[in-house]
Amino acid sequence: MRRAVAVASSMAWLGFLAASGVWAYEATTVANGGTIKGTVTFQGTPPAPQKLEVTKDANVCGTEGVKVSETLVVGAGGGIANAVVRLSGITKGAALQPPAAKPTLDQKVCQFRPHVVMLPAGTALSVTNSDGILHNVHTYGEANPPVNKAQPGFKKQIDLQFDKPEFPIRVECDAHSWMKAWIVVQDHPYYAVTDASGSFTLANVPPGDYDLEVWQETLGRKTAKVSVPAGGTVSTAITFAAS
Q1: CA-CA distance, 168 to 184, in Å (whole number)?
Q2: Are 1 and 9 in contact (CB under 8 A)?
C-alpha cells in the first residue's frame, strides 16, 4: 500500500513538471546503469580562509567578533567542499524523485545551513529561523522570481517556491551582510554537492559519454569528459588552481 501511494505521488509530481513546462528531461527506466565517483580538489596552497566581521547581534551571531567565509572551503587533503557537480546536457535517464522531506535552509548562529541546498524544480524550500532574531531572505533568481522577505524571530518558517530549473541562485541576508548561501534547482537527478573531502557520487547513470560540469562559487566552472560503462564505475578527478 505504501509503495502504491509513493508511486502515485511520484507520478503526480512528474506530471506537474511536464504540464508546467519546467522540465524538458525525459524520465525512463535505466537498464544496467553505471556510477560516476570523483573528487574536486585544489592544486597548490589554497588561500587563507577569509575572516568576516560580525557587526551586529553578537549575542546570537558569536562573541568572537569574526566568522570564517565559506566561499572556498579546502580540506587538509585539498578536497573542495560545496562544489556543485552535474551532468550537463543530459536529456534522458532516471526519474527525478520528489524529496523524501521538504528541503530546508536554516539560519543558525547567523549563517545559512547548508551553504549549498539542492531541490528539484517544482518544489518548495523551507527557510527556517533558528536564531530568534530578525533575518532577511533575499534571493537573486532569474528563471525563478527573486524574493526579498523579512523574517522576524517569531516567524520560524517561510516557504519559497522554485518551479524552474536554475543554478546557482545566490541567497543573502540583508540584515547580516556576511550571510550568503546558494540554491540549486535541479532539472534531473544527476546532481551532487561535494562533501568535506571534495568527493561526490552520481549513481544509476545511463551508459554513455557525458560532459561533467563542476561549479564552485569562487573558482568558477570546469568541464570534463566521462564515459560511463554499463553496470560499472568510472572515477574522475577535477582540479582547480588559483587564478
Answers
A1: 6
A2: no
137, 158 Cβ separation under 8 angstroms: yes
Backbone angles phi, psi at 20, to 5 degrees: -85, -10
Using alpha carbons, select from 154, 67, 155 the residue that is nearest to residue 113.
67
DSSP state of 79: B
Number of helical (H) and strand (E) elements in the chain, helices listed first? 2, 22
| Rounded distance between C-alpha atoms, residue 81 and residue 155, angstroms | 31
Q: What is the mean pLDDT of each run of 10 residues along the chain (243 residues)?
A: 43 45 79 97 93 91 82 95 96 93 96 97 97 98 97 96 96 96 97 98 98 97 97 97 79
Q: Which domains does the chain have, with CATH numbers?
A: 2-241 (2.60.40.420)
Residue 230 grid cell: 554499463
104-108 vs 92-93, strand pairing mode: unpaired
Residues in the chain: 243
What was the pLDDT predicted at 62?
87
Rounded CA-CA distance 86/223 in Å is 10
Find the radius of gyration of the CA atoms of the chain.
19
Confidence (pLDDT) at 24: 78
